[in-house]
Amino acid sequence: MNSGDAWVEGPNGERFWGRFGAAGLLVHDARRGILLQHRADWSHFGGTWGLPGGARHEGESAVDGALREANEEAAVPPDAVDVLFTSTLDLGFWSYTTVAAEVVKPFQERMADVESIELRWVPIADVAELPLHPGFASSWPELRARLSALAE
User: Fold this and answer.
1) Residue 2 belongs to some domain of the structure
2) What percent of the chain has pLDDT over 90?
């Protein structure tokens, strides 16, 4: 399977990671909050906080890619979460899908590769207080609203 680990250049020279798009897992735990990844300084928008995620493999669904990446980066077991919804930013030449999931079986997150400075459970109300990855920052208000609506 082709990993898709490569940059895609947009029509205005902007760069996006993942030849087949990218996906991230928004892990929500009712007790602990949202699992966030403090991105390694060398990564794209390094030093910001975002979701475990990355490039999708060729032919891989966004859900499968997000689950795989969250397992690779934060040791999130795929069977420990249930998918709630997806939200996709589609630029035509590249897309990013956020896969929101609820923890259904407790697990201990851990930095499973070199892409993280830190992993942290952050209460929903405090997420926007952190220096967020720009893409996550722009999508967080809608994602938060959708999570809140499901909790009602």
Assistant:
1) no
2) 80
